Amino acid sequence: MLALGTKAPDFQLKDTISRELLSFPEIRGKNGTVIMFICNHCPYVKHVNQEIVRLVNDYRILEFGFAAISSNDVTRYPEDHPDKMFENARKLNYSFPYLYDEKQEAAKAYQAACTPDFYVFDNADELFYRGQLDDSRPKNGIPVSGRSIREALDAIRNNQSPPKIQKPSMGCNIKWID
Questions:
Q1: Is residue 3 a part of any domain in this protein?
Q2: What is the pLDDT of residue 170?
Q3: CA–CA gap between residue 17 and residue 144 (Å, rounded)
Q4: Distance (Å, whole) CA 69 – CA 78
Q5: Which of 36, 49, 54, 55 could form a disulfide with 146 if both were Cys (CB 3.0 to 4.6 A apart)?
Q6: Is the pTM here over 0.90, yes or no?
Q7: What is the pLDDT of residues 121-156, one digit of tens each?
Q8: pLDDT value at position 178?
Q9: CA-to-CA distance for 8 and 5, rounded, in angstroms?
């Protein structure tokens, strides 16, 4: 896992919604930034999609920046193709960029392992939290709350230390290009 305190790796990726190339500095927020590795086909992502939208809407007004990145091999997983990413973003009302990592360079730079996988950077662009959205998983009966990410963002807002417990994400592995 990427070490806490690591500076946010930059990227230049195409947003499937606006069709613009975006970099980390262009999406960063004044108070911090959340980078989410997600995709369309993963049942773990589908399970938390509505909470991701709520989370972004709750914290964007508090000057946090957000972007989602899909790095999957679209040849083997056509549901994750940029055209499908655009459709999914519109259907789910994503109010944040949904970036396509065609060469998988961002996933490698962030050491992303699965979808969903979350990276929270503070206002100095240093990694503050990495891991799960919350303890909910498909069929485990725990309600989706975004608790882990919300606690990290609140800690940044209140000038507190990073959460001591940072649970790794669980989900579908990134589908690497052969």
A1: no
A2: 94
A3: 26
A4: 16
A5: 55
A6: yes
A7: 999 999 999 999 999 999 999 999 999 999 999 999
A8: 83
A9: 9
Q: Are 153 and 32 in contact (CB under 8 A)?
A: yes
Q: How many domains does the chain have?
A: 1
DSSP-H helix ranges across 103-177: 105-110, 147-157
Would residue 5 count as lying in a domain? Answer: no
The amino acid at residue 3 is A
Distance CA 70, CA 101 (A): 6
Tell me the sheet residues that pair with 68: 36, 98
In a domain, 2, yes or no: no
CATH no. for residue 83? Answer: 3.40.30.10
Identify the bridge partners of residue 173 per DSSP, sorted by sequence position: 114
How many residues are there in the chain? 178
Give the domain extent around 24.
12-173
Give the mean model confidence (pLDDT) for residues 82-104: 98
pLDDT band for 73, please (50, 70, 90 cuts). Answer: very high
